[in-house]
Amino acid sequence: MNLIIQGLNAVLSQHTATVQSIATMSAAEKIIPLKSNAVRLENVQCDASILQSIQELCLNAQLDVYHGPSRQLNEFKLVAMDMDSTLITIECIDEIADMQGLKPQVAEITEAAMRGEIEFQESLIRRVGLLKGLDASALQKVYDQRLQLSLGAENMLKRVQQAGLKTLLVSGGFTFFTDRIKSRLNLDYSHANVLEIVDDKLTGKVVGTIVDAEEKKRTVEKVCQELGISTRQAIVMGDGANDLKMMGVSGLSVAFRAKPVVRAQANVALNFVGLDGVLNLF
User: Fold this and answer.
1) Which one, 101, 109, 131, 189, has least CB within 10 Å?
2) pLDDT at 114
């Protein structure tokens, strides 16, 4: 088993004492620099108590730590990603609501749903209902003016695509955004909710099946079936409670800037580095 320690800044030069302390605590055989902001501690010995102490030490130093076996990227065939607050920095529905002057009300429901305090379907119906009557042009404004890719997203996708992995964007958000991102980033698959628009205005309703936690999991399973692979050959990234089911069937689950309930259940939590931090695990 290895420990991968990474941060936004140079790890070995700026966190020398922390890395040395962790190496001693874990009885690491070697410290291998991966790049300036990441190191691998090889053949470590960590029981649950030691690992918890290491995780707390890293959290205080704003470092991400992963404990696991050596893996090869070619073990995997698919990368499945949540969109809002994972592949992109915003929650699209909150920004749409801002066009209605309703961002605080909608954002409060979004946060409760991501923490797992409200069922996702109920939360989506409530939030979309508040958007009734909004001019559909607000969607394009959000895409043009507010939507940004998360740190490291483009580099991560470039590397996994070069390695031959397929890509899936599966979102409890809306096809207006997933369709554009799929085209922009040359993704292979996408699945999201369809907002009903009549006479260029939002009706406050969603058309068809709501993409909740169960539907996200079904989508990952369906795409894996189409590719002729096991879900254990999928890397799944998310941040909210509605991502847990699809993360649970994956071979590697990645919590990105995630809620505590998600971090606790994921194989790896990236709290500080970008999405491309996942590449340092391989």
Assistant:
1) 101
2) 86
Beta bridge partners of residue 256, listed in sequence order: 270
> What burial class does residue 185 get, using C-beta atoms within 10 Å of its C-beta: 0-12 exposed, 13-18 middle, 19+ buried?
middle
Q: How far apart are the first and last CA of the chain?
A: 13
Which of 257, 259, 256, 218 minimizes the C-alpha distance to 241? 259
Backbone angles phi, psi at 164, to 5 degrees: 90, 5
Give the pLDDT confidence score for residue 100 in this predicted structure.
Answer: 86
Residues 6+ apart with CB under 8 A from 204: 128, 129, 130, 131, 132, 133, 196
Question: How far is 124 from 173, CA to CA, in rounded Å?
Answer: 9
| CATH 3.30.70 assigned to 2-70 | yes
Q: Pull the structure tokens for residue 176.
A: 């207006």
Where are the CATH 3.30.70 domain residues in the chain?
A: 2-70
Q: Which residues are designated catalytic?
A: 82, 84
Q: Which tokens in the block code for residue 107? A: 């954002």
* pTM of the predicted model over 0.90: yes
Residues of the chain with CATH 3.40.50.1000: 74-281
Is residue 235 within 8 A of residue 254, CB to CB? The reply is yes
Q: Any idea which architecture 74-281 has in CATH?
A: 3-Layer(aba) Sandwich (3.40)
Alpha-carbon gap, residue 132 to 125, rounded angstroms? 11
Count of C-beta atoms within a 10 Å radius of residue 138: 18
| Angstrom distance (rounded) from CA 160 to CA 93 | 29
Token pair of 49 as six digits:
């108590």
Structure tokens belonging to residue 44: 């470590």
Report pLDDT digits (tens) over 67-90. Answer: 999 899 999 999 999 999 999 999
